Amino acid sequence: MLQNKTLNVPQHVAIIMDGNGRWAKQKGRMRIFGHKNGVRAVQEAVRYATKMGVRVLTLYAFSSENWNRPAKEVSALMLLFMQALEKQSHELHKNNIRLKIIGDRSRFSEKLQNKIKQVEKLTENNTALVLNVAANYGGRWDILQAAKKLAIAYDGGEVALDNVTEDDFQKYLVTENAPPVDLLIRTSGEQRLSNFLLWQAAYAELFFTDVLWPDFTEQVFHQAVINFQQRERRFGGS
Ligand code: FPP
C-alpha cells in the first residue's frame, strides 16, 4: 500500500457514482436495490480516502436533473439519504470526518434539511477528511449561485470588481475552501462530466472504470490513485 506522506496522494477526489440501476437490473431487482448497495460502496470509498490521507472527497449523489426520474425512485432515494444520515453520522464523527451536503437543499423536505443541519453541526470541527455529498447539485447552478453571491457583495460595497481574482471567486462556490479536484473518477463505463464540479475540476485527471458503483471497492479506488500518480500533470504548461 502506498503511503500518503511520501507519495503524491490526490488532495481532492471527486466521484460520479454511476451504474446502480444497471447493477440491480443485472440481478433482476428494482433500481432501489442498486442504490441501497451503493451505500456500502460509499462507506468503502470514505474508508479508503481517510486511510490514504485524501483531504476532500466529493461524491455526486443526486444531480439537479435526477428529479426527472420516476417519483417513486426519487422518494426512495430521499429516504435512503435520510437513513444513511441517521445511521452513519456517529460513525463519521467518531472517525473525525466532516460531512457537508453541497447543492440546492431548498427542494428537500424540512425533515431532511433539519437532519442535514444537525449532522453538519455535529461534525463541523472534524479534520481527518471533508466528505462533500453533492445532492441536488449542478455545476452550472454552483457557478451561478457564486456569481449571485459576488453580485450581492459588490452591491453592499464589500468588494471592488477589478480586484476579484479566480481564487476570490472560488470561495463563493459551495466547495468553499476545498483545493481544486485532482482526480475525478466515474464508474460504469460512462465518460461524461454530467454537470459535476465544472469550475473545480478544470485541471482534474479523469479516471473511468467499467465497474458499476455497487461493486466499487478500496481496490478499485487504489487502482485509480496509482493511475493518477503515474500521470504527468502540466496545468497548461509545457
Ligand atoms: C447512479 O446510478 C446513482 C445515483 C443517481 C444515486 C447515488 C446514490 C447512492 C450511491 C446511495 C446513497 C448515497 C449516499 C451518499 C448515502 P444510476 O441510477 O444512474 O444507474 P444507471 O446509470 O445504471 O441507471
UniProtKB/TrEMBL annotation:
Keywords: Cell shape, Cell wall biogenesis/degradation, Magnesium, Metal-binding, Peptidoglycan synthesis, Transferase. Its EC number is 2.5.1.31. It catalyses: 8 isopentenyl diphosphate + (2E,6E)-farnesyl diphosphate = di-trans,octa-cis-undecaprenyl diphosphate + 8 diphosphate. One of its GO terms (molecular function) is ditrans,polycis-undecaprenyl-diphosphate synthase [(2E,6E)-farnesyl-diphosphate specific] activity. Substrate binds at residues 19-23, 31, 35, 63-65, 67, 69, 186, 192-194. CDD domains: Cis_IPPS. Binds 2 magnesium ions per subunit. Transmembrane segments: none annotated. PROSITE patterns: UPP_SYNTHASE. GO terms for cellular component: cytosol. The active site is at D18, N66. GO terms for biological process: cell wall organization; peptidoglycan biosynthetic process; polyprenol biosynthetic process; regulation of cell shape. Pfam families: Prenyltransf (PF01255). The keyword Ribonucleoprotein does not apply. Mg(2+) binds at D18, E205. The keyword Plastid does not apply. Belongs to the UPP synthase family. Catalyzes the sequential condensation of isopentenyl diphosphate (IPP) with (2E,6E)-farnesyl diphosphate (E,E-FPP) to yield (2Z,6Z,10Z,14Z,18Z,22Z,26Z,30Z,34E,38E)-undecaprenyl diphosphate (di-trans,octa-cis-UPP). UPP is the precursor of glycosyl carrier lipid in the biosynthesis of bacterial cell wall polysaccharide components such as peptidoglycan and lipopolysaccharide. PANTHER family: DEHYDRODOLICHYL DIPHOSPHATE SYNTHASE 2 (PTHR10291:SF0), DEHYDRODOLICHYL DIPHOSPHATE SYNTHASE FAMILY MEMBER (PTHR10291). Homodimer. This is Ditrans,polycis-undecaprenyl-diphosphate synthase ((2E,6E)-farnesyl-diphosphate specific). It comes from Actinobacillus delphinicola. The gene is uppS.
